[in-house]
């Protein structure tokens, strides 16, 4: 399974794990893959703590960091939490509060609400141009960080120049071939072709269609990773056959013991079928593929006041999500996840997943070899 990107980044197998959980990143990296820590929703101080921990728990192996470096952004991202709360229309707040009250979900205690709002404020700061550059600076201070990935589009020229000056590989996610073309022109070295099947912010083009289009655009100017719905080793073989040099996975790690989800959330995830996700704007105001629930779907139905712009929708929904988790209400619980969620049906470990993916890849390659042999014999 070894491809050129393994030599570029110093991993053994081209299985890339995106996760907001440092334990997942460390476990995948130790198992020979390449873990990438989602860092856009934290402060520079928090990222420093996370990366120091990773340096100690990855055995000296390289890993990556994923950030959002926006070229344009909503200035409300820097508004103090109290002022931002005041911008939320009473109609929207009443709609959500009424929905939760009718479902018997209690409000958050005052201290928990204060903590949640402080975390949100820190996360929004990391999504401004200056805030994201501060996160990049923290990443560059850690020698085991081998790649920095821009989650939404190509990073600005000064960031690309800074990363390459530190011999750090530049990556970026794309949902269209035209996005990949702009990323190559910006100096991106690893393009993650993310199909609509993926969790989080996705476009409308499927992975099977998108990957060969991106490979054709990129040529030999960068490495391509396939993302979106990857949960079996046979899909890794298919991705390599289409010209990708590896796969980028996110959802399959959510069900592992190492993930950031607690027992209640993992149980809710295991119960979600393949068709149980949808692209919705309820979580952030932007389209996110997430598991469907009564809470996520209420915003789609008649009587909804409609979505708020980012970041107001996220502020409103995040508190509702915290209330749902605290109440342990699986019928109301939603979380960013891709269509590969149907393959996450029970507790496992990162090591189990890594072993299974590689075993299934070997079986897929053997099936293809057997087909070729039978053809030659005939």
Strand percentage, roughly?
A: 5-15%
Helix and strand string, N-terminal first?
HEHEHEHHHHEHEHEHEHEHEEHHH
Contiguous uncertain segments of 5+ residues: none
Individual helix count: 15
What is the level-2 CATH architecture name of the largest domain?
Alpha-Beta Barrel
Mean pLDDT comes to 93
Radius of gyration: 21 Å
CATH class annotation of the largest domain = Alpha Beta
Shape summary: globular
Query: Structural class, from secondary structure content?
Result: alpha/beta
Helix content: 40-55%
Distance between the termini: 29 Å
Number of domains: 2
* Largest sheet: spatial strand order: 1-2-3-4-5-6-7-8
CATH superfamily of the largest domain: Aldolase class I
Largest sheet: 8 strands, parallel, barrel
Record field, number of beta strands: 10
CATH topology of the largest domain: TIM Barrel
Which short descriptors sum up this protein?
378 residues, 2 domains, 8-stranded parallel beta barrel, two-stranded antiparallel ribbon, 46% helix, FMN
Helix-strand blueprint:
Blueprint: H1 4-9, E1 15-19, H2 22-30, E2 34-38, H3 44-57, E3 63-67, H4 81-86, H5 90-102, H6 110-125, H7 129-140, E4 145-150, H8 157-165, E5 169-174, H9 177-186, E6 190-194, H10 207-218, E7 223-227, H11 233-241, E8 246-249, H12 263-270, E9 277-280, E10 288-291, H13 294-298, H14 312-327, H15 350-377
Parallel strand pairs: 1-2, 1-8, 2-3, 3-4, 4-5, 5-6, 6-7, 7-8
Antiparallel strand pairs: 9-10
Helix pairs in contact: 2-3, 3-7, 5-14, 6-14, 9-10, 11-15
């Amino acid at each position: 399974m070894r491809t050129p990107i393994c030599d570029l980044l110093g991993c053994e197998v081209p299985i890339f794990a995106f996760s907001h959980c440092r334990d997942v990143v460390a476990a995948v990296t130790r198992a020979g893959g390449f873990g990438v820590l989602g860092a856009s929703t934290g402060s520079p101080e928090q990222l420093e703590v996370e990366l120091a921990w990773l340096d100690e728990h990855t055995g000296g192996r390289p890993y990556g960091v994923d950030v959002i470096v926006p070229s344009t952004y909503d200035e409300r991202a820097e508004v103090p939490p109290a002022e931002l709360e005041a911008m939320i229309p009473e109609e929207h707040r009443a709609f959500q509060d009424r929905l939760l009250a009718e479902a018997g979900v209690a409000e958050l205690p005052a201290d928990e609400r204060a903590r949640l709002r402080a975390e949100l404020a820190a996360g929004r700061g990391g999504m401004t141009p200056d805030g994201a550059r501060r996160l990049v600076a923290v990443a560059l201070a850690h020698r085991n960080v081998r790649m920095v990935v821009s989650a939404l589009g190509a990073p600005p020229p000064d960031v690309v120049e800074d990363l390459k000056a530190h011999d750090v590989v530049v990556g970026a996610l794309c949902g269209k071939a035209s996005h990949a073309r702009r990323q190559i022109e910006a100096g991106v070295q690893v393009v993650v072709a993310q199909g609509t099947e993926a969790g989080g912010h996705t476009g409308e083009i499927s992975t099977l269609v998108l990957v060969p289009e991106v490979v054709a655009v990129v040529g030999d100017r960068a490495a391509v990773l396939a993302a979106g719905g990857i949960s079996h080793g046979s899909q890794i073989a298919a991705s390599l056959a289409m010209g990708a040099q590896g796969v980028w996975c996110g959802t399959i790690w959510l069900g592992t013991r190492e993930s950031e989800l607690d027992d209640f959330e993992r149980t809710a995830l295991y119960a979600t079928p393949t068709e149980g996700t949808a692209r919705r704007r309820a979580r952030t105001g932007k389209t996110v593929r997430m598991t469907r629930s009564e809470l996520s779907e209420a915003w789609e139905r008649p009587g909804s006041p409609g979505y708020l712009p980012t970041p107001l929708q996220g502020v409103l929904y995040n508190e509702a999500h915290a209330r749902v988790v605290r109440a342990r209400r699986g019928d109301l619980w939603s979380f960013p996840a891709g269509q590969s969620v149907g393959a996450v049906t029970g507790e496992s470990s990162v090591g189990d997943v890594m072993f299974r993916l590689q075993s299934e890849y070997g079986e897929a390659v053997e099936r293809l070899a057997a087909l070729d042999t039978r053809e030659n014999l005939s």
